[in-house]
């Protein structure tokens, strides 16, 4: 495991039990996390019977919504590095009785995708991973032609002055990040690898949804 991955596991093991509650605090500063997730999920354009991967699924917020979109004949796979986050996700899946959902503990840089993937979604996970471009590339290799890569994440809006970047540190630190991560641009490989792409932004440009359609092989 890389040093970065080890650090992530340490951070998210500590945060797992209270992750959902602490994430909800973002609503106090006007963020509408679930609305952004619904927007991102819609962009996957899933149909009953599809296979979809939630990359960095955390406590599994998206899993019931994805399960609904692919129906009982579909397949939802949640992948995450941190055992404690997956335990929360497992609880959620069990309580909701979602038989089409499976969970995999693994690193997205090496994860072996199954066949016939129609959609991959990564919510607030790729910016935390230095090798995000490799993850996006491997995702495109796994996606069926026309299948979609959807990334929901934060980015620095153009209007934010460089001299105020250090002020973001305390906002990023609880998620295992630091201000150097503003240089990470996961939407770029999503766009570069796509036959067609689009970008939606919310929250004054801080939040984006990047959508790429996988090309013919
Ligand atoms: C901020 S949380 C987001 C969780 C979830 N997607 C959500 O929207 O609530 C980031 C997640 O990415 C996972 N993660 C970080 N690095 C990873 C990696 N290399 N491979 C797989 N998961 C990773 C962490 O364990 C954590 O659960």
From TrEMBL:
PANTHER family in the cross-refs: TRANS-ACONITATE 2-METHYLTRANSFERASE, TRANS-ACONITATE 2-METHYLTRANSFERASE-RELATED
The protein's matches in SUPFAM superfamilies, at most eight in alphabetical order, are given as: S-adenosyl-L-methionine-dependent methyltransferases
Q: Supply the name of the protein.
A: Methyltransferase domain-containing protein
Species name: Streptomyces phaeofaciens
Q: Where is the Methyltransferase domain?
A: 52-147
List the GO biological process terms: antibiotic biosynthetic process; methylation
Q: Which keywords accompany this UniProt record?
A: Methyltransferase, Transferase
Looking at the UniProt entry, the stretches that span the membrane are: none
One of the entry's Gene Ontology molecular-function terms is: methyltransferase activity
